[in-house]
Amino acid sequence: MTDDAGPILDNHLHLDPDHGRGLEAVDEFVRVGGTHLIVINKPSWHLGVEADTGEDFRPVFERTLEIVEEAATRLPGTAWAVLGVHPGLLSRLVDERGKSPQEAATIMQEGLEVAAEYIERGQALGLKSGRPHYDVTDAVWDASNDVMRRAFELGAALECAVQLHAESGSDFTTVGQLAADAGLDPAQVVKHYASGDLEGVTPSVMSDRDRLRVAAERGAPFLMETDFVDDPDRPGAVLGPKTVPRRVDWLLEDGHEAAVRNAHVDTPRRVYGIDTLDTLEPVA
Question: What CATH superfamily classification does 9-272 receive?
Answer without folding.
Answer: Metal-dependent hydrolases (3.20.20.140)
